[in-house]
Amino acid sequence: MTGLEAMVSLALLVVLTATATLHDVRRRRRAPVPAGRPIEAIAADVRRISARFHVEGTRFAKYEGYRRSYDQVLAEAADTLEIDHLMRVLPPGLSLDRERERLEDHMIEAGLLPRL
After folding, report:
1. pLDDT of res. 36
2. d(CA 73, CA 58)
3. How does pLDDT run across 34-46, given as a tens digit for each residue?
4. pTM, full prediction
5. How far, in Å, CA of 37 to CA of 43, rounded?
6. Most-buried pick from 85, 93, 107, 108 (CB within 10 A)?
7. Are the C-beta atoms of 80 and 43 separated by less than 8 Å?
8. C-alpha distance from residue 38 to each of 54, 61, 112 (Å)
9. What is the number of other CB atoms lying within 10 angstroms of the CB of residue 17?
C-alpha cells in the first residue's frame, strides 16, 4: 500500500467514524415518548363516558358496558395523575362503587369532571 492509499484509507475511516458517532448522538437526543395518552384526551373520555354512565333507566347491557368503560378510563386517569386505586382488582359491587365515587371526587378536584 502506498502512502497515498494509506492516507485515503485513514481519511475514509475518520469520516465513517465521525458519521456513526454523529448519528448516535442525534438518536440519543430525541425527546422521550410519553408512556400513555395525553391527560386532555383522558379527561375528555372521563367526561363523555361519565355523562352516559350516570343516566337513569338504562338497560342493563348498555349500563354494564358504560360501567366497564367508565371504570377503565377512571383507572387510566388515576394512573396518569398517580392516584392509588383498586379499580382493576375489585369485583363489581358496593366496594367498587365506593372506589369509583372516591376517584370521581379526585377527578373533580383535578378539574377532569365538573362538580355535580
Report:
1. 85
2. 20
3. 678 999 999 999 9
4. 0.70
5. 10
6. 107
7. no
8. 24, 30, 13
9. 10
